[in-house]
Amino acid sequence: MRFGLVAHRLHRQRVDGALVRWARACEDDIRTLGLGLHAVGGTYDALAGQQLLSGASLVRLPSGVEGGVMRLASCIAGGLTPADELDGVIYFIDPVDPSSLYPETQALKRQCVIHGKPFISTAAGATEWIAVELAHAGKGDAGFASAIGKQTVALIAHDALKTRMVDYASRHFDLLSRFAMRIGTGTTGGLLNDLAWSRGWPADVPWVTRYLSGPMGGDAQIAELVLDRRCDKVIFFEDPHVARQHEADIQLLERAVCAATYDTTCFNSPATAERWAAAVTA
What tens digit of pLDDT does each residue of 91-104 get? Predict the structure, then answer.
């Protein structure tokens, strides 16, 4: 298994930044997995300077200005040869770094969503994902699952994927019911409540606490909960194939998640959410 690795300056230049904290916390597990990391130039140099991940499979790509992120996008899509393909990306995003809105960053994330590969943008998410892969490899358990009973999860889906979200919730109803609270935007939340009531959930108790629809401000409302550390996980089924009228609101929510990098995780595709659920319930 091979992942791309990128960290914005905020996360790679500080000794207590997300890159260093994650590498120190997960170093042994990365070696246990045999996870190969293809790191963009400045990220690779930061790890080398801190003498982190020594002994791990670490490849240096060009810096961002030299096209390193662009190359990652190609490798997520399959690369030029089968040997180039990557299985996902860990990208520690600083939400106020303008490069997070550059076309190459947006294209990299979009290719991950299209191909059902993880795009992990927070320190909490990167740590959890290593545990997910350990569980799938039979080399560890999903210890993070013990916290679910105290957490809030947001369940959001764009129009073309609302049916997929309902199907996902139906198949993982018991797992999602373990969360202390579930929240969602208007239409998706209503569909999920109908599902829960059909499954015997008390008729006078919403399974999902609904906020406004996305275009009317629901994404912004959930973003505020994320910033207040009142939402711990976002499962967001994004449709990468259509122009979205409330794109700014969607980006606001995603950037709020990155601002809460040590506390919040986010999955952007059904395939990624399925892999997480399978690790928890294995």
Answer: 999 999 999 989 99
